[in-house]
Amino acid sequence: xxxxNSVSNPVALTNKVSLTNKVSLTNKVSxxxxxxxxxxxxxxxxxxxxxxxxxxxxxxxxxxxVTAQNNQHTFxxxxxGPQMFAAQLKAVAVFTPKAMKCGLVAxxxxxxxxxxxxxxxxxxxxxxxxxxxxxGGALNNEAELDGEGNSNKSVQNLLLAHSTLFTPxxxxxxxxxxxxxxxxxxxxxxxxxxLKMGAQAVLIKGGHRLNDEGIIKDNPSTYSQDYFHSVQNQxxxxxxxxxxxxxxxxxxxxxxxxxSGIALGYCLKxxxxxxxxxxxxxxxxxxGVDGEKGAVQINRVPDTQVxxxxxxxxxxxxxxxxxxxxxxxxxxxxxxxxxxxAWLEQLLPLGVSTIQLRVKDLIGxxxxxxxxxxxAIATRYQCRLFINDYWQLAIQHGAYGVHLGQEDLAEAQIQxxxxxxxxxxxxxxxxxxxxxxxxxxPSYIAYGPVFPTKSxxxxxxxxxxxxxxxWQKLLDYPLVAIGGIDLESAKxxxxxxxxxxxxxxxxxxAQDPIAxxxxxxxxxxx
Length: 526
Ligand SMILES: Cc1ncc(COP(=O)(O)OP(=O)(O)O)c(N)n1
Ligand SMILES: Cc1ncsc1CCOP(=O)(O)O
Known about the structure:
Organism: Paraglaciecola polaris LMG 21857
Radius of gyration: 25 Å
Domain Pyridoxamine kinase/Phosphomethylpyrimidine kinase: 38-294
GO cellular component, one term: cytosol
Structural class: alpha/beta
Strand content: 15-25%
Distance between the termini: 51 Å
Oligomer: single chain
CATH topology of the largest domain: UDP-N-acetylmuramoyl-L-alanine:D-glutamate ligase
GO molecular function, one term: phosphomethylpyrimidine kinase activity
Shape: elongated
Protein name: Hydroxymethylpyrimidine kinase
Largest sheet: 8 strands, parallel, barrel
Bound molecules: ligand LCLJCK34, 4-methyl-5-hydroxyethylthiazole phosphate
């Protein structure tokens, strides 16, 4: 089934409330997990269970095999027999999992039963094709596990054809597509081939094997990058490489983190970003065990900016890898968003230090005149004026900055804005968009809607104060809260320590905009 297209609630197509909001105190959602047991406790079901627990999700555990392995050797692998496999499936049938995850699948019979279960439940299947442990030992080769003579390749082909998301690394993808993957073009070609073979989406884990030019090389490169491909979305997730020995269990952990995100109600592309964040943070926290090589350590929902990948898609323009200029030492504070320059004459004398001109109904000379007038007033009051959308006019007339939405990013010449020395603010509404904004290194990130808003049609679930708190904790960028904020809620939002509070209607529709602005300024200065 297609997570992206088949969710009945249209809101689920785009985003959900934050993780902090989403985890219910009285009931957990579950992920139906099919994996092997790893005697070293570094991968397999042991890792799946830990990761899902970290996300506040319950791990329903159907064991596919028992493996006797450590970091050096795989001693023995025994598939769980058909009777035991069926009994486990029967036992977990009382639950109503929200996603499925499979790792090591021992044989075609198991694969078929997993697929039958997925069809019956109609939930997403996140499939990590496991064939070898990091110690090099085969985990589901045909001789040991499949008495029917079916090869591992047929197990993977079967699962691939029914996966909502399939997450091979490069060697695993190479085996399935039948050609060598040597650069990023081959990765894209392989992703397309895997979709043709039936997967609804793939995430090819390039890991350390890609260098800056997208060419695979043997030495660890400066960053790791994974490629996501579905019919609707294609993007790279790029993170700085982490120098650690303790990398066991990353494949299992990634698929489990993504399945957890789906179970919590996030759409696939957000769950994939969350999964990548979990791995990066988990590698930074990784530890050895008794002096032996250890595993990625995921013990909480990812909550640091260093874990956030840079999301690069076709529309992302070449990066100069330079951040946009900062907004200075003074937080953005109260950030009114107005449609005419005349508002600046009213609000700036009150001490408003950041404002946005968001004109939606003018074109040509009238638009340019409005922008010029706003810049002149803002300059007089030394106020930080951001121009919404019209970046060329903002550059031409020397505005302080530009604010762009996600769609505008594709059309604007970002490098021109950067080279002209203007600040850049970017709107975001979910993990996917925050990771996309991060690739531009903007001056600030705006996140919303915090509450329901009447000022703009928005398909996004309002995040609430808790959702915003998650991003305020995570991001090092100055954060602007926006959407449905009023005098009362402004206090709670300010208390989170956000840099700015963006507002349209509370000021522009107020009976007494001056009084409201003064009251809001008192809050943001407190
Ligand atoms: C501070 C701030 N945040 C968000 C927005 C919304 O911008 P955008 O997504 O470009 O949508 P429109 O404003 O163009 O409708 C904003 N303008 N300012
Ligand atoms: C433009 C925009 N972007 C996210 S919410 C929003 C509208 C904010 O307006 P209001 O403050 O009236 O809710």
